[in-house]
Specification:
alpha+beta
Length: 188
């Protein structure tokens, strides 16, 4: 009986030490997401890709997302598509924090794509960087971008169709304060 108790005590001690050792590997903030829907943290703001997808200008819904594109960027090359990332940003702190201004999509062949600047007066879904008040979101609550079925602000890219095959595509969110950037694998 004593031997059984010693074995049981030893097993419990090993299990407790393994559990305690595992706790040291946890991080307070994620800066890498293997899929959309996972929150990543940049500059104390939480970013979540609600969805990313190719946008079809012939679709009435997608046509609304493609408003406000500068005249010089309105034409697509034969080997390009409109690619939208719908982003949600949360400020859980009690103070205003600056939202990211720089985003880059990269493929596995090291091709990089920058977002277009959309006119927010013409496109109510456009992501707008700026200070996010404490306890608030991008997109703002009760706004068209918040209340539609997607629930995210649009970041619009022109992407080469060949890059859609060089997956995973990664979205990098750049820190504005010199902190860690975050990377999210996009579901295509």
């Amino acid at each position: 009986m004593a031997r059984t108790l010693r074995t049981l005590a030893f097993c419990l001690a090993v299990a407790a030490s393994l559990a305690a050792a595992g706790c040291g590997n946890k991080t307070d903030t994620a800066i890498q997401a293997d899929t959309e829907g996972v929150y990543v943290t940049v500059d104390d703001l939480k970013y979540q890709v609600q969805i990313s997808r190719i946008l079809n200008p012939a679709s009435p819904e997608d046509a609304a997302y493609l408003r406000g594109i500068p005249a010089a960027d309105q034409a697509l090359a034969k080997d390009e598509v409109w690619f939208g990332i719908f982003m949600r940003v949360e400020n859980q702190s009690g103070k205003p924090l600056p939202a990211a201004e720089e985003f880059t999509i990269s493929d596995t062949q090291d091709a990089h794509f920058q977002p277009l600047t959309l006119d927010p007066k013409l496109n109510v879904f456009a992501y707008q960087a700026g200070d996010v008040p404490g306890g608030h979101l991008i997109p703002e609550a009760n706004s068209p971008a918040s209340d539609n079925t997607i629930g995210g602000a649009l970041i619009l890219f022109k992407v080469k169709t060949g890059s859609l095959y060089n997956r995973p595509l990664e979205l990098e969110i750049a820190s504005r304060t010199g902190g860690d950037n975050a990377v999210i694998d996009l579901d295509i």
